[in-house]
């Protein structure tokens, strides 16, 4: 199944055999074994509240995106962009734009009010990516995290 196709880029739903590619591209993968990534990927691709898609060029994976729905008492249904990664050799060729269009189309299909992407404002590439595609920096909040394990 192809989710999107344009300019030599096709996007398809992620499969369990994409785990090694995803792990290799994800910048935090040094903390997670490929088998862990595969187990999580298998669970997430079955969840209708998540989308994980892989972009390919010339039948080779070159990027992926992960997003999920989020709803709170104080905000409408939204899509939370968990991560979008494109390999270095394919940046600037429209892969990120095509992956974002898939996430936005999915968001519209599930009735989401908006797409949210938490990016580090000091990270120039991520910040300009957001602005280039019509996103605005909504706040300067830092995310707080406490481990429960």
What does this structure look like?
The protein has four helices and six strands; from the N terminus they run ββααβββαβα. With 149 residues, the protein is an alpha+beta fold. The chain has one domain: Aminopeptidase (3-Layer(aba) Sandwich), CATH 3.40.630.30. The protein has a six-stranded mixed beta sheet with strand order 1-2-3-4-5-6, sandwiched between helices. α1 crosses α2. The relative contact order is 0.14. The model has no long low-confidence stretch (mean pLDDT 83).
CATH superfamily membership: Gcn5-related N-acetyltransferase (GNAT)
Assigned CATH class? Alpha Beta
Mean pLDDT: 83
Quaternary structure: single chain
Q: Strand pairing plus helix content: what structural class? A: alpha+beta
- What coarse outline follows from CA principal-axis ratios? globular
Q: Evaluate the radius of gyration.
A: 15 Å
List the strand order in the largest sheet.
Answer: 1-2-3-4-5-6
Q: Could you name the CATH topology?
A: Aminopeptidase
Number of helices: 4
Provide the CATH architecture. 3-Layer(aba) Sandwich
Low-pLDDT segments: none
Topology as a string of helices (H) and strands (E): EEHHEEEHEH
Q: Strand tally, please?
A: 6
Largest sheet: 6 strands, mixed
Report how far apart the termini are.
38 Å
Keywords: Acyltransferase, Transferase
Pfam families: Acetyltransf_1
Organism: Bifidobacterium favimelis
Domain N-acetyltransferase: 9-149
């Amino acid at each position: 199944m192809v989710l999107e196709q344009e300019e030599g880029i096709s996007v398809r739903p992620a499969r369990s055999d994409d785990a090694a590619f995803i792990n290799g591209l994800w910048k935090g993968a040094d903390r997670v074994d490929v088998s862990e990534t595969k187990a999580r990927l298998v669970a997430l691709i079955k969840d209708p509240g998540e989308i994980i898609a892989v972009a390919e060029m010339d039948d080779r994976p070159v990027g992926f995106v992960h997003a999920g729905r989020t709803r709170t008492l104080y905000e409408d249904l939204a899509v939370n962009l968990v991560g979008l990664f494109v390999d270095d050799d394919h940046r600037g060729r429209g892969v990120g734009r095509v992956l974002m269009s898939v996430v936005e189309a999915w968001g519209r299909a599930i009735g989401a009010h908006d797409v949210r992407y938490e990016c580090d404002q000091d990270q120039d590439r991520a910040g300009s990516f957001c602005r280039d595609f019509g996103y605005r920096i909504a706040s300067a909040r830092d995310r707080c995290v406490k481990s429960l394990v």
